[in-house]
Design goal:
Layout: E1 2-6, H1 14-24, E2 31-35, H2 39-56, E3 61-65, H3 68-72, E4 77-80, H4 86-99, H5 111-135, E5 140-143, H6 148-158, E6 162-165, H7 179-184, E7 191-198, E8 201-209, H8 217-226, H9 234-250, E9 253-254, H10 258-261, H11 283-297, H12 315-324, E10 328-336, E11 349-357, E12 360-363, H13 371-393, H14 396-405, H15 412-425
Parallel strand pairs: 1-2, 1-4, 2-3, 4-5, 5-6
Antiparallel strand pairs: 7-8, 8-9, 10-11, 11-12
Helix pairs in contact: 1-2, 2-11, 4-5, 4-15, 5-6, 5-13, 6-13, 13-14, 14-15
Length: 435
């Protein structure tokens, strides 16, 4: 099995792929190619992979390159965790939006920031898809690049490449659904939880005692509505206040971090909006991590240091299941709806539980959404569709339609000005707009 990781020099995500391939799955015979414009980082990661594999006696090959097309030849799975000059481009967007009095719109996935981030990410993913159609047409893309639903929609709609998207938001990090069990006074292992919706906009559909089968959703709702939260810290109380408001408006409990959900909604005073690039690590931290990679690759530092934030998304487990036609259950995956969420179009990309068998992914139908929530999800999904069409075609009129339809963007006239300025600022990355 050949796995290509685009963004292979990432100090946050690439180590999780190494951990899954070598430590958890121990994929003997696997070829891993790390692709990154920062060859030093990618080579350091590859050297670390080889040393870890040597220590654990896993027979696998790890190499690094800046040549994406060369890496893609014969690939079975292409994991994409990449942005183009992410922090610098975000800062350009922030400065434009701040000058127009729209600083809260400098979001990663929603609003005006999410619109431009989508344009850049979709341009990249479509370039990758075109290369794959030529060099590895049977391969899967396993995407972790944001804005997830827009990136996955673009590849699924405008290429022949199969794609699925991974996110850890519903899990609240490495320990699984830590937030919900805390509210119920239980551990994650004691609960069976079903969440569904859109990426960064998922909701709790079921929560049960995994041993007895008791339905705990009424208890969770009662806890949120009663506001007896004195035992919770200040940040948790803030999230609970927001959850209570949305429960009243939409009829469901938000899964994951409320600040992510809020990216797709109008401005709200108690939301923590992004004020710094949503990318990990300062220059100093990256330099330190690069030196650590060299030490690990040389066998002078234990590899545990590389895995200090744990593996959240699990694309390697899906790759292994698809490759071997084995069975797997995944709590959340971004795939075509295919009827899993009643009331949403079949072709829309949704975040739902799936099963894997026979080399195929099968969406799992979830309980019906409350009507207010279904209408909101449909509206946000409609915006995703318009953003994707604008990004792929380079049609500014469609981009303006996306702004008009987006509930997160309230000042439409200022947004049109921002769109014009941001398209000009990023014209070198967005040739399809012919500016």
């Amino acid at each position: 099995m050949k796995i290509v990781l685009i963004g292979g020099g990432s100090f946050v995500f690439a180590p999780t792929v190494l951990e899954d391939i070598i430590v958890k799955e121990r994929l003997a015979g696997c070829e891993l190619v790390l692709v990154d414009p920062n060859l030093d980082a990618a080579e350091g990661m590859a050297a670390a992979a080889r040393e870890i594999a040597r220590q654990l006696e896993v027979d696998m090959l790890a190499t690094a390159t800046v040549n994406r097309r060369e890496a893609l030849i014969g690939a079975d799975f292409v994991i994409v965790s990449a942005s183009v000059q992410g922090a610098r481009r975000w800062q350009i967007d922030f400065d434009i939006l701040h000058a127009l009095g729209m600083a809260d719109q400098a979001r990663e996935c929603g609003g005006m920031g999410g619109l431009m981030n989508a344009f850049r990410s979709i341009t990249l993913i479509m370039d990758i898809c075109r290369d794959m159609e030529e060099l590895c047409p049977q391969a899967w893309i396993l995407d972790v690049t944001n804005p997830m639903p827009r990136v996955v929609t673009a590849a699924a709609r405008y290429s022949s490449i199969r794609i699925a998207g991974f996110c850890n938001i519903a899990y609240r990090g490495a320990e699984g659904y830590t937030f919900l069990p805390k509210l119920l006074g239980k551990s994650a292992s004691e609960l069976s939880i079903v969440t569904a919706g859109l990426n960064h906009f998922a909701w709790v559909m079921e929560i049960k005692d995994s041993r007895t089968g008791e339905d705990l959703l009424p208890k969770l709702i009662h806890y949120i509505e009663e506001e007896n939260w004195s035992d919770q810290d200040e940040e948790t109380q803030r999230e609970l206040r927001i959850s209570k408001r949305w429960l009243s408006e939409y009829g469901a409990v938000a899964a994951g971090h409320v600040d992510h959900h809020a990216e797709y909604l109008p401005y709200q005073e108690d939301i923590h909006y992004t004020t710094a690039p949503p990318y990990h690590g300062s220059f100093e931290e990256r330099s330190r991590r690069l030196e650590e990679l060299k030490q690990i690759g040389a066998g002078k530092m234990h590899y545990d240091r590389l895995f200090d934030h744990g593996s959240w998304e699990h694309p390697v487990a899906l790759a292994q299941a698809l490759y071997t036609a084995s069975d797997l259950q995944i709590d959340i995956l971004n795939v075509k709806n295919d009827g899993a969420i009643p009331g949403l179009p079949s072709e829309r990309i949704v975040e739902i539980p799936v099963t894997v068998s026979g080399g195929m992914i099968h969406p799992v139908e979830v309980p019906a959404f409350p009507e207010p929530l279904l209408q909101l999800c449909r509206a946000i999904s409609d915006v995703h569709e318009l953003v994707v069409e604008a990004a792929v075609t380079g049609n500014v009129s469609i981009a303006k339609k996306a702004i008009d339809a987006d509930p997160a963007i309230e000042n439409k006239e200022a947004a049109y000005q921002a769109l014009e300025q941001m398209l000009e600022s990023h014209a070198d990355l967005l040739p399809q707009f012919h500016l």
